[in-house]
């Protein structure tokens, strides 16, 4: 067991991390600093203060990180049209590096030599927290109680809480969700419970943020999103900060039944796992960003981004946000967005995000060339013959030597 | 102008290719063989016979290629979860290599030295037809009338038809769609007309195959798709041929408002162009295929497929189906599907394709390892510490030497 | 500590693995099966039998794996022109999966429930052995003494040997190389000692297999290599088995001062490490294989192979030979070699491998098209204008809208 | 034929471009501006002035572009360890975009509406010149005489010269090399002649820049190269400009028999072609750059660079230097070089470039961790067990479900 003087704990104020807080004090006999962040999870963060104080914590950090989260993490990720395994918008993954960064900043401010978190030893989050922490403070000690202690069932945890007089919100504990959940401004996730059978349909009352498509309004909602350098800066012409944008898109999207997802994904630690996600704003943003890029981005730039995207997505999913390779890719992605400016019009209706228009002063769409009508010489159709002939040459030579693609 | 003895024409029976037929006879003073294919476009192909006969064609080919189309082209493509530029399911692109192949087969059978088609000099289809033809018969001559003649407006075309007594279905010509369209069993596409302004919303009455989400039924439809080696072999337990599968999925999907798309895409010949597509069955298949792969495919195999997919999609879009590099990629893709067997359950509702379950005898999902409950030792959480430590090592060394990801 | 009944040990007969043998017997109180392989390392393997018998081993496997090694591991790898980090020919990496496979085969034959090896906890070899073993026998137990015991210095090891009466070849032990070495038919490697300072030049007397370029003959040696499906099947017209080919190329290459390498590489476990390698035959094979591919392989197939090669090399380096993604890539690579037939002529001189000719019945080199002389119409230079114009179109449109690559 | 007022001609002063000059004046009846560049080809550029004047040219540009060439083109390319098709160092390719840029700059300065060059219709250079020109000035007209005129043999060219009194250096013309050659500070190339048979050995007296390995000194030369941000800034401690560096490395390399290459490559226009190249300085730079990166670059950054390199090399080879995708890749490449500082020591001997040492204040090589000796706890060998276990997990699960890599 490591010798620890002071540890910064990512503290939600809930039962699990309260037990961890106590367990750290007792087991490591060290001082604990708590850090509680508002990332838009939709729960009050202030109550964590009193709980921490009650357990004798002297240094308590409670931060509203919503703007930083969207501006420096969510938006950069969406510039790459990032999706993990064709479906997942990385709602949990993208919040972890910010928490890791704050844990280390606080450790540096308070002179702590360790950090601790409540992620289990089976999941991706432990990796994301710890890779981030090590990249930012290589000598930091990491305490991951779920990998160390023996409180591996809920009963043991409750017993521990009772025995150590940790205040448990029993009302809440009693009606605990059967799911393991995580939420921030980008999404809310559900794992465990009946989802552990991949054939069982998810339950309608599991979802918390979105209306079902069935329950969504019968008339569509139209919105216009204004982009500057690949980021949304206004909705329906009204300028907004990044967190305002995402909050509003979550509201509109959720209202229209948008952004539910039920998948089986591959964890970095090696097993498959089923997750359900609600990402209303993100689902809208992905579609809209592709639409604005479709008229402003060069073809080969767009294709290169598409080819690198799965790699970039895996880096984020696996916890490598603070790695040099993610930073290098980001420079390329950001550079590609210089001309990604303009407006996208969307129709939202019962789960559907339908692009109905896109325009830009930086549009590369040239109606004069693309037209099916006569173009007055803007494009010389005869050029196509030579283009095809030379592109075919290597295949013609091969076929001439007897190689056939039909064999 | 090339010296041509006999040319095989891809002949639809419509006005454009009828004019081409006549123009070839007059301009090249050569014999014309017509080839008309049923690819599931939803129009009768037999009427083309009488029209061709009326213009003196002696060798007339009319083929039902629907099964071959889905079995050898559509299904192999879907094994790769293929999407061009994040959105387009390649409905037009994937039909062209089959037509090219048949043109060359017929040329070989009839002793023709040339082929001809009705694609314009601005589009991708000319490239797809001709690259395929050259790869299969390197010495073939290609006549692309739209790149050669001066009948570049509809009026000139009508005049030519009238002057040469080409039978025009004036009723049909009169109510001609304002869109340039293409259809086969995978999709129907629309280009031109009001779509040439990227900001103008597409018109509701443009769509021909699908109900709108608004008009779709208010109650969802559930279906179960059975996969063998990555291909659908049964719907709701009933065995079907490839073309039957796609026909039925088009029916169910269209009924439920699924598969509409409005995008701006990058053509191989260099310009951006707007297209609207209805791909009801394909939209269902993409989602379902990812779902069955999610439980049966190894993580790294899935990721490698995802990284190569954009390249594979571009090859198909650009007309390189018969190239050696597409064939090489296909071998890898097909090899990956050996264990992609099982059943996917979907809920279809007003444009939404919602995965609600997936099961397989070849599933790699291990509930015992993935569970949030105690797993009886199936997974040793302590392993994660070493896993993270070594993955972090290079970043820790770098940070220890003063490199910070925050600079 | 795992409960082990019988363990198969990769046993060289040297001091280290002899100590391991004894330590396994004592520590795990289990039966030990020894496995000693001739992979072309140039040392007798039979002496291992008597040593094992002296320590009471009843089941002793001594295998000549040279042909299998080259045929099923080295040759398939060279089909991809595989190089790790631009320099390293993977001589150690490629032998490990074969050893892992034999360990598991022997475990299955002898009813052993564990395997053991002498690789340290800092290197790549432990990963390669164990990933292979787990992929082939998922429930196998692995004992890696260097990660478990406390005999971490040479003195402690010698003490242990003395105390347990393990026969040590003191003559040999006394003049022990200052380097950590590994050899097989593909290469011999050196690590440690003075090489741990990256600025210190390697010592001339370290090298064991090759003459120095200075000491190599003053007249060049010419050889002709015959390829079939990407593999060498004859040298100077004389048919040879795979192991014969590599043995002979090692001889010729070594004689001519070919194949020395001094690099700093990145280990999978996270640190940089310096290695020196002698790979005379492999260095020749890499150059020659590229030469035969240069006239027989399609351009895009060659480029796709080049783009995937670094990934493939990392898979082998990191120990993923038996992974599904390596197997999938291999199918593509092997498929690409169908026409890689012909002859390459090389000039070998004082460290240089110079290609002086290549010919093939499957050559795609068309002198008639490539010629600088008049080609009689084989290639129409006017086609190039259209080819360039359409390839430039997207950039012209962008420039026309004011985007400049000079900004 | 285009209507041209004034054309800028890339003019070498030799026979071919002198004929082109005259032919442009006569055929297009337009004013010609000549542009002659010193790119380090080793021939006087000033004589071009008198020749151009003699043919009535009023605007004559003669530029020494050597520093710009190495600083802005060669060095950036070497930051990526760029090689085309595993062998070619892109000596010709990398000079073309600079010439294209100057042609357009001069066109803008002189009010010319066209450019012209002496590249043939079969090669890559026409593509490189013209893609560059179009990207920089989209409306420019391009005249490529070799694609237009009928002077396709040397005899016709000589006749034309005689008839139009174009001064021919008959002494030089008489002893004309049998090869088509191109030279600049990075390399000299040879094509055509006996090289058109891929089996014929290149002739020793073809080579112009380098000694043969046989003729090179019998004692090695040691040099030390100092890097800053991935570029060489000093040789043996003496600061030099980019062009000085390359000039000096060419001298030393050529003296030591370094940098000859004989390959068959795939041209962008579709055929295979044999080329011989001398790149003495570049061959040294490639090796040395990898060596300095080996101690200063993060592993994953290095691997990502390696994976993207073939794409980047093709972009340069194919003429896309001024494309947005090359520029985007360059930003990533340049960003990766921030810490590529230090010194590499090389031993040059009869064609061999041998790395004997590398050191850097930014080295990530940590002898304390890499050592085979006891490391005092810098690295915990036990971590490796968990690392391997989790990396093996997916394969163990698959094997447990009956999937075997041996089937």
Automatic annotation (TrEMBL), chains A, B, C, D:
Keywords: Amino-acid biosynthesis, Arginine biosynthesis, ATP-binding, Cytoplasm, Ligase, Nucleotide-binding. It is found in: Cytoplasm. Coiled coil: none annotated. Its EC number is 6.3.4.5. Its main location: cytoplasm. One of its GO terms (biological process) is argininosuccinate metabolic process. The keyword Transmembrane does not apply. ATP binds at residues 10-18, 37, 118. Pathway: Amino-acid biosynthesis; L-arginine biosynthesis; L-arginine from L-ornithine and carbamoyl phosphate: step 2/3. One of its GO terms (cellular component) is cytoplasm. One of its GO terms (molecular function) is ATP binding. L-citrulline binds at residues 88, 93, 124, 128, 180, 189, 265, 277. Homotetramer. Belongs to the argininosuccinate synthase family. Type 1 subfamily. This is Argininosuccinate synthase. It comes from Pseudomonas fluvialis. The lineage of its organism: Bacteria, Pseudomonadati, Pseudomonadota, Gammaproteobacteria, Pseudomonadales. The gene is argG.
